[in-house]
Amino acid sequence: MDISLHGIEKSFGKLQALKPIELEIKSGEFVSLLGPSGCGKTTLLRIIAGLENADDGQIDFGGKTVYSKKKRINASPQKRHIGMVFQDFALWPHMTVFENVAYGLRATGKKKGLKEKVAEALGNVQLGDYAERYPHQLSGGQQQRVAIARAIANDPSIILMDEPLSALDATLRDEMRILLQALVKKLNMTAIYVTHDQNEAMAMSDRIVVMNQGTVMQVGSPETVYQKPANETVARFVGKGALIEGTHTLYDRVHYLKLNQNAAIPFAKNFLEEESFNTRVTAVIRPEQINLSRTAKETGLQGEVETASFLGERYEVTFKISGTEQLMFAYSDVRLSPGQTIFFEVTGQNIHVMKTKLGGEEHETA
């Protein structure tokens, strides 16, 4: 089911939690609301669910208005035909798994075929044999599966999830992420997923809505948001990497990002337009776009290792470019030691560049 948000606003006293939000979500799409704590993503989700009232705007589900300030329409959560999954599971401890899943069906008066619907929902989350157990007899991952089964038992067109995996350990999060992705596609539901975990959002989503301070900063596929962030805020929040500010210069037909009199980064490709010559720009350079070496490179670029962290399949290295205070992030196949001199070159073919407006922090893509 399509979801349309038009001019959705919300304030709590003097704090404006949501500035006018415009958002279109296609039927069957998996969309993540991504942003730091306090950015307004959970408030927006609760307004979509009908658990919170917006101060202004309109919400349409499949072309039907479920909320409108001007038209005085405000459908209750029960009439919006949605399923919800919360961070804390929200299971009744005195009820069996079966009764927890059946609760929503009974509350909405859908008792016909109840046993079959509960059995189907439990089967979809691989808990068919756990119907008579109580929540305290289940692991955290199993409890969250019960919460998901309860959300889908009513066969909703839309499922809303508020950081449902944050209480689980890393291994369980990976397992549940795969299950959720497969389940949403199998049941052809439209999903809105709130998270502050950028890796989770990029792995699961068809599109990501990056939010900050009650505003939508960018909407796009995970690839677009990662490779072409709309501004510095998005670039810093989505993915690892460094923002390098310098002057675009051209020397002997090679384009450089000049950091100071002693350091300039040559680009592997002409990423910059001629009209940006001698202007200040900011480049977003990701770790995978940097090639490290312990021997000198033709570029003459070198740095000093600050930290090296073992991640299992590789090392994550932070280093300072010699002659500057600029920190960079890169990956290495071998362990490097703090203080060690290393050489590097920027090799990526998708370096993203933003023009820097002098005297301000705003950026626009070049």
TrEMBL record:
Question: Which reactions are catalysed by this chain?
Answer: a quaternary ammonium(out) + ATP + H2O = a quaternary ammonium(in) + ADP + phosphate + H(+)
Q: Which InterPro entries does the entry link to?
A: AAA+_ATPase, ABC_transporter-like_ATP-bd, ABC_transporter-like_CS, ABC_transpr_MalK/UgpC-like, Mo/tungstate-bd_C_term_dom, NA-bd_OB-fold, P-loop_NTPase, Transp-assoc_OB_typ2
User: Keywords of this protein's UniProt record, alphabetized?
Assistant: ATP-binding, Cell membrane, Membrane, Nucleotide-binding, Translocase, Transport
Q: What class of enzyme is it?
A: translocase
**Per the record's keyword annotation, is Transport included, yes or no?**
yes
Q: Where is the ABC transporter domain?
A: 3-238
| Stretches of the chain forming a coiled coil according to its record | none
Reply yes or no: does the keyword Phosphoprotein apply: no
Q: What is its EC number?
A: 7.6.2.9
GO cellular component annotations of the record: ATP-binding cassette (ABC) transporter complex, substrate-binding subunit-containing
What GO molecular function annotations does the UniProt record carry, in alphabetical order? ABC-type quaternary ammonium compound transporting activity; ATP binding; ATP hydrolysis activity
Complex and partners:
The complex is composed of two ATP-binding proteins (OpuCA), two transmembrane proteins (OpuCB and OpuCD) and a solute-binding protein (OpuCC).
What is the name of this protein?
Carnitine transport ATP-binding protein OpuCA
Organism listed in the record: Alteribacter lacisalsi
